[in-house]
Amino acid sequence: MAGSTSGIPTNVTQGSRTRGGIGESTLRPDGTLKVTGEFAYSSDMWHEDMLWGQTLRSTVAHAEIVSIDVAEALALPGVHAVMTYDDLPAPMKYYGMEFQDTPVLAHGKVRHHGEPVALVAADHPETARRAAAKIKVEYRELPLITDEASALAPDAVLVHENRGDHHSAHVPHPNIVHHQPIVRGDADAAAARADVIVTGEYTFGMQDQAFLGPESGLAVPSEDGGVDLYVATQWLHSDLRQIAPVLGLPEEKVRMTMAGVGGAFGGREDISMQILASVLALRTGKPVKMVYNRFESFFGHVHRHPAKLYYEHGATRDGRLTHMRCKIVLDGGAYASSTASVVGNAASLSAGPYVIEDVDILAVGLYTNNPPCGAMRGFGAVQACFAYEAQMDKLADELGMDPVKFRQLNAMEQGTVMPTGQVVHHPAPVAELLRMVKDRPMPPPRQWEVAGAPADLRALPGGLSNTTHGEGIVRGVGYAVGIKNVAFSEGFDDYSTARVRLEVVGGEPVAMVHTAMAEVGQGGVTIHAQIARTELGVQQVTIHPADTRVGSAGSTSAGRQTYMTGGSVKNSCELVRERVLEIGRRRFGAQQPAWASDGLLLEGGKVLTSGGEVLAALADVLEDEVVEIEAEWRHFPTEPFDRVTGQGKGHVQYAFAAHRAVVEVDTELGLVKVVELAVAQDVGKALNPLSVVGQIQGGTVQGLGVAVMEEIIVDPKTAKVRNPSFTDYLLPTILDTPTIPVDYLELADPEAPYGVRGIGEAPTLSSTPAVLAAIRNATGLELDKTPIRPEHLTGL
Prior knowledge:
By secondary structure, the protein is of the alpha+beta class. The chain is 25% helix and 23% strand.
C-alpha cells in the first residue's frame, strides 16, 4: 500500500454520502396523507363495541358544589356509566404537570368556568351528550378572584385553601403560584446616570393555541386489568406519570401510544381527556372514545397567560442603556399547570437580547378564577418581548435615533452576561439579524393598484369586505428582535431516549428508530430518519410509532426535540455503528491495521466507516446479526434561579429572531393589512432547510394573530369565557397572512448536536411587537395592548 501523510493508504475509498441525510430538504413522510385528508388523527380512531365519553362542565367560575343528582342520566337508555369525584377508582384523585393541584373531577367546589364535574359513557355520542345534560348540579356561588388586586387583597378569597406544593412556602401570598425576582447591579444608581428614562404599562391578551385537531383519544381496557391509551399529546411519559396514580395502576399497566396529532403549540402538554376516558373504560370494561367539539376544546386545555407588564428603561444621550426595572404579572388561572416555569422564563428573559448591567426584575404568576393558563409557543418570553421592544422604540424616539441602530448599539453578542449572571456561550448575532431584515428591499407601495383595472381588494385593509378603495390608508414600518431559551431550564433533568435497530433484510441494511417523541407537526419524524441515514449510512429507515414502551423523549416543546431527541438518535446511531464495526473487526480481526480503528478494512483496501456499509458488504456472513441499542442523551446541567437574586445558570441555549413588519392602516375605519413580515433567524444548523423555513413562517403567523386579532375574552364580572368558538375567536387565514421572506444564519452552537439551535418558538416573539411598531409608525398612537382592535385606532 502506498503511504500518505494522513496515515491512510491512498487507494482506500470512503463510503459515499447517503441520500436524504442531514442538510437536505427531504419531504415529510406524513405530508401527502395530511394534505390529501387521508391521515388518521386521534379523532378518527375506532374500536369494536366502543362507548363514547362525555364531560359535564361547570357553568359558573367559582362556587361550592351543594349537590349532584345523576339519576336521570343513569336512567337514559344506552348509558353505561355516570361518574363523579367520589366514583374515581384510586385514592389519588389529583394531577398536575409541576404539582398536583388539579382534581380529575371537581371536588367540593369549582374554580373556573368549564371545569369537569361529571362523566358519562354511552353507546352513542348524542346519547352521552343528552345524558350529561340531565345531570343536575346545585351551586352556591363564591366571590371571584379575577386580577392582581382581587387576588392579593388583604381579605382575598383563596383559590386553593390548602396549598402544599414546593413553592407555597416561598411566596408572599397563597394566591401567588410563584414569584421570581432578578437583581443584578444597582438599578437605582444607574437610573441617576440616565439622560433619558421611559416607562410603559402594557397589557397582553389571553391567546389560544387554536390547534385544528380537538382533544381526542381512545382508552381500551386490557385483560391484565390495565389500559391501552391512544391519544394526541405532547409528552407521553409526563401523561403516564400523572395518569397511573389516578387509575390506581402501576405505570407498566398503562400503555400509551401516540395517535395522530392535529397541532399542539403547548396546549397538549397538560392532561385533557386522557384520565377521563381511561376511568370510564376501566369502570365499564369497554373501550371508550372521547372527542371534544370546538366549544369544549376551549375549556379542555390551557391558554397563553394574559399579562400586565410595567417597564422602566434608561439610556445615556449617546444611546447606551443604563438600567431596567420591570414587573410582570401573569394570570395563571385556577390551576398551576406550568405557570411556575413560565414565570421563570418571563423573568430571566425580560431584558431581551440587550446588554443591561443594572436590572431590578420581578415576575409573578397568580391563581385566579379565570381559565387555567400554561404552555404556549414562546412560554413567557412572548409577553416580555412585546413590552421590552415597545420600550426600545420609545427610547429611540426620545433620543432621536433610528430604532434599528439603537437596538444594534445595545445588542448582546457571544460572551454577554445575562441578568441572571449566565454567560451566553454560543453565537448571538442580534445586530446582524437586525441588519438582515432592515437591508431587505421594501415591498412595493400601493399594491392594490393595477394600472387600468379595479383595485385588488385582497391587498387592502378590510380585504374582500370592500370597505375602501385606498382612501385614508397609511403605511408603517416596524422592527423587533427577541430572545428565547431552548430546552428545559432551572435544573430540570432534561434528557431524551432513542432505540435504534440495524439489521439486514433481503441483503439490504435497514434501520428502525424508536422514540417516545410526540410528532405534533414539527417534523421530528423527518429529522430522525435523516440522522439515521447520515450516521448509519443506510437508505431505508423506519420510524416506529411513539409509545411508552421506550424511554422518555420529554415534551415536544421549548424548541428542544431536534436538539434533545435528535441528539439521542444521533448518540444511539453512533453506538450502533460502533457495535457493528466491532462485529466486523472480530470477523476480520487479523486484517485490521491500527489506522482502521474508525472503520473496517476489506480485501482490496476498501475501508467501510458506516454501520450500514458494513452490514451490506458482509451480508453473507452477518445476515442474522441484529444490533439494537437504547440510550439516553443529556445536555449540560442547568441550575435553579436563586429565589432572592435570580442568579443562576438556568438555561441551555438561546435562540434569536428579528422581524421587519410593513403594514397599511385604514385610519378612518381602524383596519390593518399586514403587507410583509420579513424575518431573519440564527438556526445553528439547518438539518432540513424546507422544514426550517416552514417553522419560522408558522411561528411568525402565530405572533401576527395575537398582534391584530386573537384574544380569549373573559367577562371580568363572571370570569366566563365569552368567545369559545372560531366564529368569535378570530384566527389569521391565508387572506390575512402576509408575504414572509425568510433569511437564516447557520452559526453552530458547539454544545449542540450538529450545532443545531431550536427554531420553532423564537419567531413567535418578535413578530407581534414588530407589527405593533409598524402600526404605531403609521398612526402615531402609543398602542400598549394586544390585540389591536379597530376602536384602538379610531378612538371610537
